[in-house]
Amino acid sequence: MNLLNFDIFCRVVDNYGDAGVCWRLARQLAALGHGARLWIDDLSVLARLEPGIDPARDLQSAHGVQVGAWPAAEQAQAPERGVVIEAFACALPSRYAATMATRGCLWINLEYLSAESWVEGCHGLPSLQANGVPKYFYFPGFTPATGGLLREPDLAARRRQAQARDRRERLRALTGLPVDGLPAPGRVMLLFCYPDAPWAGLQAALAQREEDTWLLVPGAVPPGLNSRGSLRVLPIPFVPQTRFDELLWCCDLNFVRGEDSLVRALWARTPLVWQIYRQADDAHLDKLDAWLDRARWPEPARALTLAWNRRDDEGVRRALTQALAPDAWRAWQSRCDDWSRELSDRPDLVHDLLDFCQNHLQKS
Ligand code: TRH
Fold first, then answer.
1. Ligand 1 atom having least distance to the Cα of 49
2. What pTM value is reported for the model?
3. Which residue among 66, 94, 164, 324 has the highest number of C-beta atoms inside a 10 angstrom radius?
4. Are 273 and 255 in contact (CB under 8 A)?
């Protein structure tokens, strides 16, 4: 395969997901030997995900990726026959876009992840832009007719190696928690959610179990969520993105949100509850239904996901209690494992994207 040069453009709209997806993609391309530059308008968000990044430096490099502050991109030139990835329709700097036409670049708009079936019809379609270059829409997704999901080639092997080691030691090394008294498997959970999540329902369900549950909360703990009954709420540090998987692999149930942490939780092969990013006019609820239809969770897990996203505390309390009952829990674990295997049998996003680029660069 020819090595390519990628320029990835990212504007941070909110939270960590925009930067998180672009950073993961850039790292994986660089690890495969491709040239990868990431232009980003908020280095402080990237620095949270990658502590090696200095938010005060306009140009730097980490993990083989060149990182540039967005204003510097205004003066940059597109690489000759390079691939320009505009993440999430962030709009390229106009001067830069003008250089693309004469340099034989391939222009790709990387879209947000959706499980809706219409994305299959739109994946890969071109649209001619003002600079005379077609822009191709690239949709990540859960089916073979989409652009796939980000998954590093060595991920499953790393998970198996990690999980062969003592979980208490892994957790201690990662979070600094004193791990004496770590509950039995089945009772360590990660809570990565938006501030409006119905955590009171979660707290009510977990506080009344017979044995302890540990709830690990990276970053800020929602005010009012605290240890009670059999629930221990444990604030933990936000870990670098390169170690986030290890955190998921320590937990039996992962509450995740947005886009990137959802995909990582799927690769962890354990039960997960997804809080989708909220959109105007409740558009996210259709996306959530489409995802649940593909997930085919057993009923209590489906009900839990719906209640979690509808911010229904009583629904969460009831459904979580049911989903954690032994038979329901085993059925949920087994479906997660099956779906994760099924998805990982397909080409990952980077390999799909590289094929797409090679085909389209040859044609031009
Ligand atoms: O932060 P998010 O809510 O980002 C969202 C979504 O991407 C959403 O789709 C998008 O529209 C919106 O932003 C603008 O959730 P997400 O996508 O899971 O990103 C979180 C990133 O943070 C992910 O790359 C994992 C990383 N992370 C760490 O590296 N360390 C940690 O300790 C934690 C908790 C997360």
1. 29
2. 0.97
3. 324
4. yes
Q: How far is the CA of 262 from the centre of ligand 1 (A)?
A: 9
Please say if 259 is a catalytic residue: yes
Instruction: Return all residues near 332 (Cβ < 8 A) that are at least 6 apart.
Output: 271, 297, 298, 300, 301, 323
Question: Is 152 a catalytic site residue?
Answer: no
286: alpha, beta or left? (left if phi > 0; alpha if psi -120 to 50): alpha
Q: With beta carbons less than 8 A apart as the criterion, state whether 145 and 176 touch.
A: no
Flag whether pLDDT at 228 surpasses 80.
Answer: yes
* Conformation bin of residue 148: beta by default, left when phi > 0, alpha when psi is -120 to 50: left
Residue 219: C-alpha distances to residues 13, 61, 76, 101, 193 (Å):
19, 26, 36, 44, 10
Q: Which two tokens stand for residue 15?
A: 């939270």
**First vs last C-alpha separation in the chain:** 17
| 274 Cα to the center of ligand 1, angstroms | 12
Measuring from atom 24 of ligand 1, which residue has the nearest CA? 20
**From the CB of 89, is ligand 1 less than 6 Å away?**
no
Determine the Cα–Cα distance for residues 227 and 36; give it in Å rounded to an integer.
45
Question: In this model, does residue 363 exceed pLDDT 80?
Answer: no
Nearest to 65 by CA among 110, 117, 152, 7: 7
Yes or no: say if 198 and 316 are a contact pair by the CB < 8 Å rule. Answer: yes
The pair of three-digit structure tokens given for residue 65, joined into one six-digit string: 């990726």
Give Cα 258 distance to the centre of its chain. 7
Cα separation of 69 and 127, whole Å? 28
- Residues 6+ positions from 84 with CB-CB distance below 8 Å: 6, 7, 9, 78, 92, 100, 105, 106, 107, 108
336-344 long-range contacts (CB < 8 A, ≥24 apart) are 336/266, 336/269, 336/270, 336/271, 336/272, 337/269, 339/266, 339/294, 339/295, 339/296, 340/266, 340/267, 340/268, 340/269, 341/269, 343/142, 343/149, 343/266, 344/151, 344/156, 344/267
Distance of alpha carbon 254 from the chain centroid? 13
